[in-house]
Amino acid sequence: MHILSAAQTHELDQATIEEQGIPSVELMERAAGAFAEWFARHFTPHAAGETLVLCGPGNNGGDGLAVARLLYQAGYAMRVALLPADKQSADWQHNRRRLPKAVPVAEISAESLPHIMPGAVVIDALFGTGLTRPLAGLPATVVAHLNTAAARVVAVDIPSGLFADAPQPADSIIVRAQHTVSFGLPKLAFLLPQNAAFVGQWHLKEIGLSPHFLANAATDWHYTDAATVAGALPPRPKFSHKGTFGHALLLAGSRGKMGAAVLSAGACLRGGVGLLTAHIPGCGYDIFQISQPEAMCLTDTQADFISELPELKPYQAVGIGPGLGQEAASLEVLRQLLKAADKPLEKTGQPLPLVIDADALNLLGSHRELLKLLPENTVLTPHPKEFERLTEPARDDYHRLELLRDFAIQYRCLVVLKGAYTCLATPTGELHFNSTGNAGMATGGSGDVLTGLLLALRAHAQIPAFEAVRLGVYAHGRAGDLGAAQTGQVGLVAGDIVRHIGPALSEV
Ligand SMILES: NC(=O)C1=CN([C@@H]2O[C@H](COP(=O)(O)OP(=O)(O)OC[C@H]3O[C@@H](n4cnc5c(N)ncnc54)[C@H](O)[C@@H]3O)[C@@H](O)[C@H]2O)[C@H](O)CC1
Ligand SMILES: [K+]
């Protein structure tokens, strides 16, 4: 699914109106209808009580007026407060005329701000994607008033005062909504941690926007949902054998961190790899062999950490990092691996696929001269702190995305920035935000599981690099969601994610 800028969203509206030959108020009616339907499923008229709709002067306010009418007709007690303006949009005026006389309407002024009881339900339709500058003056006063009222706020399309697609001053006045009901496509702003307190839970409503425009819109921002990855995993042919799905090598573990190697290996096996060999320090032999009998195991001459790179010939992909530690000898192994992997393989003509995580990323961060050795399409899986060590501290979430994109382009690699909406950056500068996963996955070992799964998918001969990583990130989150459905988010551990990789992959 695409993510569009605010300007493109406006073009999308126009394209839909022209293509479908409908008046623009019809599209507004669809949006308001979708919002009212969501609202009615969440609040009964009794639970909502008297519901206040705050309306601005543009089409977002027009949506609000239409919502007030529809909910009034559905039996809700409604009242409307209008922000004064020199001019209102045509569709606003249309819906103002259609508002039943029985719905009380007040004009807002600094002296008469709407009365809001604690716990009252308020629909925020002040500003939408047409916002051109941070709120100031009366609109800012109204929003600040709403934010201190401890109301239950549902935003129409986007919380008022929030830019849909761009950074804004840190002290901007923005509605703090519990829910945001948005139309058509997710907005980039919804996916950034810095906006979570404003957006609350967001919900997407289909309103029949032009599929033609959506398919052809030029954007670098994408949202990976079930439809995106459907069919990405080739069916396992009847006459396949273990060689068909690749032989992966995992370099992982150190004393006290063998669990990382075990979890990562488990995920790789559940990810459908043909064969897995783990190279681990001597101390981990019993632990590893007992807990992962399906994997083969090579032990390092060092007991506590990895100091040797095995012969790479047998392998179709290599993962390095989980529980690795940052010993000087392990740094040398990483250096040798990067150099050895950069030669094109006979079979594919591509460099040996690599997945680099955890301490291997930290080693790259402290020895940045190694970055230029990264073979094309290497997969890096940093969390924001690890990513900062590779680049620089980000001013805010938008700046971090900029750094991420630049990094992926510069080093021609696939960077998976882990978070609530894990973002995959590609060498061509695209950003793909993932839709699956939950807060229960913020737990030790979850990243090791992702590494193992990505390793399995990179070893698969029939899945191109980018598709493998997008699929792996999606399936990892989905496995976490399936796991949490059984354990709850609080009780979820990384092993639960491993156990649900199989079901998650069968879904796609
Ligand atoms: N995507 C859809 O698919 C549909 C969206 N709809 C709704 O329309 C709004 C966007 O409406 P638009 O008229 O373009 O903009 P706004 O209502 O957000 O506001 C524009 C209005 O406000 C003025 N303005 C802008 N910034 C400020 C500011 N900081 N302070 C004061 N005034 C400001 C501007 O000059 C205009 O007068 C979208 O979000 C949806 O809710 C449609 O209903 C159809 C489907
Ligand atoms: K709004």
Describe the secondary structure blueprint for this structure:
Layout: H1 6-20, H2 24-42, H3 45-48, E1 51-55, H4 59-73, E2 78-82, H5 90-98, E3 105-107, E4 121-125, H6 137-148, E5 152-156, E6 179-183, H7 196-199, E7 201-205, H8 211-216, E8 221-224, H9 226-229, E9 247-251, H10 258-270, E10 275-280, H11 285-291, E11 296-299, E12 317-320, H12 328-341, E13 354-356, H13 358-366, E14 379-380, H14 384-390, H15 397-411, E15 414-417, E16 423-425, E17 431-434, H16 446-459, H17 465-491, H18 494-499, H19 501-507
Parallel strand pairs: 1-2, 1-4, 2-3, 4-5, 5-6, 6-7, 8-17, 9-10, 9-12, 10-11, 12-13, 13-14, 14-15
Antiparallel strand pairs: 15-16, 16-17
Helix pairs in contact: 2-4, 4-5, 10-16, 13-14, 16-17, 17-19
The structure holds ligand LP7C6HRI and potassium ion.
Ligand LP7C6HRI binds at residues 9, 13, 27-28, 31, 56-63, 89, 127-133, 135, 139, 156-157, 183-184, 209.
Looking at this protein, list some descriptive labels.
alpha/beta, Rossmann fold, UDP-N-acetylmuramoyl-L-alanine:D-glutamate ligase, 10-stranded mixed sheet, 7-stranded parallel sheet, elongated, binds ligand LP7C6HRI, binds potassium ion, lyase, ATP-binding, potassium, NAD, Carbohydrate_kinase_pred_CS
Q: Would you give an account of this structure?
A:
The protein has helices spanning 6-20, 24-42, 45-48, 59-73, 90-98, 137-148, 196-199, 211-216, 226-229, 258-270, 285-291, 328-341, 358-366, 384-390, 397-411, 446-459, 465-491, 494-499, 501-507; strands at 51-55, 78-82, 105-107, 121-125, 152-156, 179-183, 201-205, 221-224, 247-251, 275-280, 296-299, 317-320, 354-356, 379-380, 414-417, 423-425, 431-434. It is α/β, with parallel strands linked by helices. It folds into 2 domains: 6-217, YjeF N-terminal domain (Rossmann fold, 3-Layer(aba) Sandwich), CATH 3.40.50; 248-507, 3-Layer(aba) Sandwich (UDP-N-acetylmuramoyl-L-alanine:D-glutamate ligase). A 10-stranded mixed beta sheet has the order 8-17-16-15-14-13-12-9-10-11. It has a 7-stranded parallel beta sheet with strand order 3-2-1-4-5-6-7. Helix 2 crosses helix 4, helix 4 (59-73) packs parallel to helix 5 and helix 17 crosses helix 19 (501-507). The chain is elongated. The mean pLDDT is 97. Bound molecules: ligand LP7C6HRI and potassium ion. The site of ligand LP7C6HRI has 28 residues, from helix 1, helix 2 and helix 4. Potassium ion binds next to strand 4 and strand 5. Homotetramer. Its EC number is 4.2.1.136, 5.1.99.6. K(+) binds at residues 60, 124, 160. AMP binds at residues 418-422, 447.
